[in-house]
Amino acid sequence: MNFRKQHSIEPTPMQLAPLVDVLFLLVIFFAVTSHYARHETLMDISVPAAETGEDRPRTQVGEIIVNVRKDGTVVVNGQELTLDELLIKMRNIAEVYKDQAVILRGDTETKYDAIIKVLDTCQKAGIWNVAFAAQPPEEAARNSR
After folding, report:
1. In this structure, is residue 137 part of a structural domain?
2. CA 132, 86, 119, 56: dihedral to nearest 10 degrees?
3. Quick check: is 82 in a domain?
4. pLDDT of the residue at 49
């Protein structure tokens, strides 16, 4: 006597529609974020050259790029900010992310005073992880032509 029931359980086929939806959303997310990251580094700012330094990828996730133009205006995420607006923005970010990384991109013709004011603003906001953007000398020579 065979008391076991012999029901075969068919495996559920893999659902492709949700997988395609998730992949499509990921593609959109990375396309949009890469556009904004590229926009921050393609501004009309020519960073100074340096022989030494760490060669790193363009940007890392979570970094804030603060651009200082020739005339001293501060641009973050495509928006021109005053130092007071920058302080408020940085304080809000520093409250949430204690080790927030900031990359400071100053033009070669920017006055030293403008860079120090931005550094001071970062310090007031509680951000200590500040790096300066520079380019290799050979790349600077190509860009100056």
Report:
1. yes
2. -20
3. yes
4. 64
CATH number for 89: 3.30.420.270
What is the domain range of residue 124? 37-53+60-144
Cα torsion through 36, 38, 44, 48, rounded to 10: 130
| Mean pLDDT, contiguous 10-residue spans, the chain (145 residues) | 65 85 91 66 63 57 83 88 94 89 88 93 91 74 58
Rounded CA separation 131/80 (Å): 20
Q: Which residues pair with 80 in a beta bridge?
A: 75
pLDDT at 108: 85
Number of domains in the chain: 1
Residue 67 lies in a domain: yes
**3-state SS assignment for residue 114:** helix
> Would you say residue 1 lies in a domain?
no
Give the list of residues 6+ apart from residue 84 with CB closer than 8 angstroms, or none: none
Longest dimension (CA), the chain: 94
